[in-house]
Amino acid sequence: MTKQDILKPENLVYQKTKLLTKNVMHYCPGCSHGVIHKLIAEVIDEMGIQNETIGVAPVGCAVFAYNYIDIDWQQAAHGRAPAVATAIKRLLPEKYVFTYQGDGDLAAIGTAETIHACNRGDNIAIFFINNGIYGMTGGQMAPTTLEGMKTVTTPSGRNHEMNGYPLKISDMLALIDGTCYVTRQSVDKLPAVMKAKKAIRKAFENCQLKKGTSVVEFVSTCNTGWGMSPHKANLWMQENMTARYPLGDIKNI
Amino acid sequence: MEEIKLMKGNEAIAHAAIRCGTDGYFGYPITPQSEVMETLMDEAPWNTTGMVVLQAESEVAAINMVYGGAACGKKVMTSSSSPGMSLKQEGVSYIAGAELPCLLVNVMRGGPGLGTIQPSQADYFQTVKGGGHGDYRLITLAPSTVQEMADFVDLGFELAFRYNNPAMILADGIVGQMMEKVVLPPFKPRRTNDEVRKQCPWGTMGKTDDRERNIITSLALEADVMEATNNRLQAKYRIIEEKEVLFEEQNCEDADYVFVAFGSAARLCGNAMDALREQGFKVGLLRPITLWPFPTKRIAELAQKAKGFMSVELSAGQMVEDVRLAVNGKVPVTFHGRMGGNIPSAEEIIEKFKENFNLK
Amino acid sequence: MKKEIIIAGFGGQGVLSMGKILAYSGLLEGKEVTWMPAYGPEQRGGTANVTVQISDKKISSPILKFYDIAIVLNQPSMDKFEERVKPGGILIYDSNGMTRKPTRKDISVYCIDATDKAIEMGAQKTFNMIVVGGLLKADPMVKTENVMLALKKSLPERHHKLLPANEEAMKVGMEIIKKEN
User: Which CATH code fits B4-197?
Assistant: First the structure.
């Protein structure tokens, strides 16, 4: 059997979605962003809404999200993606609008924008990547950093007396009347990936149902920032992060 | 003929915004400009033109909503007053960096800090020299009447879309709060989405099969790419400086002395000029309408024959620096200003004028 | 013709709306007008004032130091603005709550007991129209029919039933104003 015999459409078992561009991702090997990007691209492709979707990229590692998914994008100032998305959705109500934000972006500097977009029930999807650390700026403490977790700004580990507590912001957002769907997912194992993809699809579908804001949190890893191998980071996440940030739907109306 | 109305400058901004086909307004209350959003909410244009009006959770959110709307190619605006404008500066810098058109309105009040709600012009530096970070410029229009408040909405949008650059109406508490006669601009329909796509092919309204995806960003990590962006911006700014200068002159042809003042300060100077002319002093008034681009050339021309200039501002003296640059040492450039919300009377301006130029 | 007027009193006395009606009346007569309030929280209970100018020619400064006419409706306003009436100008005051009478001799002084009259008429909301009536008696700068038209145009339709009471108040104001100096 030659290579040409194998390269036939009927033999295809896996294909990169055409919505992922050919740009080489800048994310570290083992990072959760790549998987989540792929899932979002697949959902947009499967729903046939490539031309109907506008993404809003954050400041943080995912600032370059616009390089990887083949849709129209805006890059927002740090923390402001929900405000930016609000305006896009209000001005183009027939479109699907989503933000893609990290924990610093969404839960620290952008807390007000996040809460108020949710409180207005703006019909957008918020994808929230929680890896408990600032990756892009070099591993500083995030609002979601676990107690005792070492970062370059908490070298002895996060201590609530000095730094406060790991913020369970998705639980807060679930309390807001304007949200219709708040869920916490992960992408560390195949079943988790499948579930996460369903959550992404639901969040997109909600955009046109006028039910309110959808928030999908992804409990993620930052193996570089955490100083671990990708495999170990996944294990550490399963053991520690999901204890503080349990997986599953928090709200689903 | 359009009906003549009596209204506040802030109200005129709101009515003009609806009439010139604005797609969205995003704001946050602050005195002395709150009537802009209040009037819009009262008029409820979403029922008529389809214009979106939204009270944001902060000035920061409001300017980023403007960014989001402008990046779609939509005609969007915000308004605020000095402390709120300070909060918006990050967003303004992003908008300028991403080369997006939008309209900003600052109805200035006294600072620094929380300051006073009384009128001021002390945001001149913030508006024409910087404000946010990086090398960028705002096309800045300074209205001195309620009529100009109304007219500059459309003009501001025209300039913003011509150059893909934010435009600012830099007013103050006096122009915002006073009522005068105004003829509102004629109704222009909002552009359809197809028209927006045509006018702004760079807009993120959703990809189409005939083009690559659009990306609105001000980020370029590579120095050479970022410098190229800056060079492009600077080239654009030189064209604006060449083509878009606006000013108004009164009695400047034979003037020995020229008042330079913008906005409401120019109107205070008008009274002083009239009184001084009656006393036999040949005094003129140059009112820059665009603060950036500044009427540098015209001031330099006038400096060839005038004996002196006096800048009158509701600040410690900000625009006077640009007057000095334009005059370039040829003749004395003096200044009088009041701060903290105080307004110099015509009598006070006359006294300072005589003192500054040693006249009796 | 050029009239430079300050109206000053407590917030809630209708100072700003009085000024607006005057400015609107001037507009209806084809004049140039400006209406410039001292704005801010003092509108609520503190002192409020508004500068109104009505002129045949373009008006330059909306803010003035000296006035042709000052209408002062409380003591702080009298204390502030009596000295800023131009020689030969007019000062109109309501004696209600005043602790002293005006002292200037080089201006015309009028007293209008509009507060008492409005209470007597059981129509306190028409207080400011009593004052407007008094002003027009002292200086008929605009026609009364244009004042009524201005009022009609500035009131929402649901309040148009109040127009006759306001017209009556204006007439009463013309009757009760007294020249003192």
Answer: 3.40.50.970
